[in-house]
Amino acid sequence: MATVKQLPAGGVSAQATPHANPPSNHRRKRRWLGLAYLAPALVVYGFVVLVPAIQGVWLSFFHWNGITAASWAGLANYTGFLQDPALRQAIEHTLFFIVFFSLLPITLGLASAALTARKDVKGAAVYRWIIFLPQVLTPAVTAVAWKRVYAPDGPINSVLRAFGLDSLAHGWLGDYDWALPAIGLAGTWAAFGLCMVLFVAGTQAIPAELYDAARVDGAGPIREFLTVTLPGLRGQLAIAVTLTVLGAIRVFDIVWLTTRGGPGTSTITPTIVMYQRAFANPDVGAASAIGVVLALVSLVIALVVVRLSENGNR
Amino acid sequence: MVTLRRTRRLAAVAMPLAAAGLLTACVPGTSGKEMAQTAAAGPVVTDPAKMGQVRIALLDYFTGGTDLAWINDVISAFEKKYPNITVERSSMPWDDVMKALPLRLRSANPPDIVPANNGWQSLGTLVQGGLVRNLDGYANAYGWSTRFPASILRQHQFSADGRQMGTGSVFGAPVARASAIQVYYNRTLLSRIGTAVPKTFADFEAALAKAKSAGITPISMGNLEQVGITGPLFATMDALGRQSRISDFVYSQNAVKVADTGFPQAGAAMKQWADKGYFTKDFAAVPGQDAAQAFVDGKALFRFDYSGSLPLKKGQSTNFGSFLMPRADGGHAVATASSATNFSISAKSAHPDAAAAFMNFAAGQEAAQIAADHTTMPLLATVEPAGDDPLFTDDVDASAQLSANDASVPYLDWATPTLLTTIQTQMQDMLAGKVQPDAVVQSAQADYDKFQKTLGK
Questions:
Q1: How far off is chain A from B149, nearest CA to CA, in Å?
Q2: pLDDT at B41
Q3: Distance from B371 to chain A by nearest Cα, in Å?
Q4: Chain A neighbors of B428, CB-CB under 8 A
Q5: Beta bridge pairs of residue B114
Q6: Which pLDDT tens digit goes with each residue over A203-256?
């Protein structure tokens, strides 16, 4: 990491030494000018993101119902976090969702990139468009669609019954064992397109000579994938992992619009608990604490992924 | 040098932000002191003609259907009668109103009339925060306590310190439209199983059994979003429990436990019905809207629903009827019922007289007749049902019974801000056989006790 930072800094100072004061003055002015250009965006960002974020952190130290005077809670909202059975369950579900929202779509995306990148598949653009489509739909629409798909008289059960598999037909979203994977699969479907497009674009940027070289060395398709395609996609992988894992952590809409965290609490997520505490059962401090923790966890994950992908590039 | 300058610059950006954070950061919330200022003081004006030219802002959650038609017609009728008062109406979906209300009421210029929901989740907390006005002066001047059934008016009452619901000062008013949990039935299917409209709880259960053995879904219910079970649960509780106990529990009087309200018996009945297949097949996975539609499409005998909530198209209502769940002990029917909305006046309103005049009008005879004209269940006044819609005739009859017998009980979940979530989650677990019926009762009681502590009890 140290070497990374020194490079641009060294470059700048090397250019700067021949000229003395005037240009640096000039440069300082230009820096302020740059900041001035940025100012509108910074002000908006400050008031829309930073101020509420700071308020959120502050609120997390109170017991507050959203209306009457709050009382100081210290760290109680955070320590309560660890003991709350609903939250513990919600965190387990998040780990489960990471498999469906991140691991599966990335695996599928890599597979489709490996299959299509080096050959011309007829109608590839159409397939890509169809697979990418979920990214364009609003989550509310996908939730309604999946509710229909999983309904007791919905298409999945109709197909099962048509094949005489009546015993396999389920009320998927109302089943304690199936509701979570059912929602997870909807998430896989939604994230798959993004991963595929990222990876296909990435493979197209890999120089063809690398593949030729691998083939000359007698590499089969798997070897080729492991030694050429995968290393070449490191940057895209980092983006895909960051986006999809964060997506799994903050999943809310599809759960809220299908099961509301049920049956019982079998699909509850941290964001559902946060929403309930913020609005339905006002305990704004506890909701803020959940939000703060989720934000920190997301930040750490993003940093780790970026760090890992940068280290690999050295 | 570079780093120093950078930190300074960072500080330059961060300082105002931190300051902004700290400024807003003093202890959040309103202090209880504001409460006292909202106590009704001084004389009130009740003659709208003497209020001068006034504009009042009304917020409601009537976004479509007869809801919207009713409020628009009430406003037109009011403005026609009192041309010096203009009502500016805005509306948001129910969920959004409940989320936004605390912020709107604290803003510099809140609406004059707001639809705070009864119970501790909304109105009770707003009263504690001093954000809505004490309406005792208007209640006396307009004679609300004699005009409205006591069981309806007390849904809008809170003690002076905001720690007791169902008694004390008036902080809101009902409107002339009812929202009750009713039992709807399909006339064709009922005659097919050769049964009359149930007059006792035993009749009702017998009809369920007959329908089941005739291959008809007895009750259309979808519980995917956790809300479907509350209708049958509360209506059955009203049939098996005692009216005074349910009210006392919600209003935290006489130390009534949830176990005394008929709630455990109702929960056990739900489990029995589920096990006997009286609810829609796979009800745990059926979306609520699908179940409502299935009933309207003639696929089930009964449905529990809130007044006016069935997705009926024009002319479809002729095949349906409604009744209030009959009691097990043969007494008059008791129903979980309230006004279709509560209206309260924001503490900051500059025109409380005009706002109260409108609320009084919306709770009056003319507004009830407008409700009847739109075939939506009236409240607080007797009306002649318009036309020959048989379902609406039943609705008017149910409303008259509720008023005559003073037979409404509040929604159980008004008792604490979290009780609805607790009950719904636990009921799903119980119906799926994951927990025993006792566990539901214990969780509900624990939820109740926890909240009572915050009220200082």
A1: 29
A2: 56
A3: 30
A4: 262-264
A5: B344
A6: 888 888 888 888 898 888 888 888 888 888 988 999 999 999 999 999 999 999
Q: Give the strand pairing for B85-91 and B54-60.
A: parallel
Give residue A203's pLDDT: 87
At residue B411, what is the residue type?
Answer: Y
Q: How many A/B residue pairs have CB atoms within 8 Å?
A: 129
**Local structure of A260: helix, strand or coil:** coil
Question: What's the pLDDT at A301?
Answer: 92
Is residue B113 classed exposed, middle or buried when 0-12, 13-18 and 19+ CB atoms within 10 A define those classes? Answer: buried
Q: A interface mutation test: which of B126, B171, B428, B453 has the most A CBs within 10 A?
A: B428
Amino acid in position A94: T
Q: Which of A46, A58, A282 sits opposite B125 (nearest CB)?
A: A282
Q: Closest to A67 (Cβ–Cβ): which among B98, B125, B420? A: B125
Do B121 and A282 count as a contact with CB atoms less than 8 A apart?
yes
Q: What is the dihedral of CA A43, A44, A48, A49, to 10 degrees?
A: -60
CA B59, B64, B66, B72 dihedral sign is positive
Instruction: Please report residues of B whose CB lies closer than 8 A to that of A265.
Output: 425
| Closest approach of A19 to chain B, Cα-based (Å) | 18
Handedness of CA A41, A46, A50, A55 (dihedral sign): negative
Closest to B397 (Cα-Cα) out of B307, B338, B323, B325: B323
Q: Which two tokens stand for residue B55?
A: 């504009």
Which residue in the set B99, B125, B425 is minimally distant from A65, CB to CB? B125
> Which regions in chain B score pLDDT beneath 70?
1-26, 30-42, 386, 457
pLDDT tens track for A43-102? 999 999 999 999 999 999 999 988 888 889 889 999 887 788 889 999 999 999 999 999
Q: Which ipTM did the prediction report?
A: 0.83
- Give CA–CA dist A186/A154, Å, rounded: 15
- pTM here is 0.87
Distance of alpha carbon B384 from alpha carbon B387, whole angstroms: 9
Choose the closest CB to B17 out of A51, A70, A150.
Answer: A51
Per-residue pLDDT at A1 exceeds 50: no
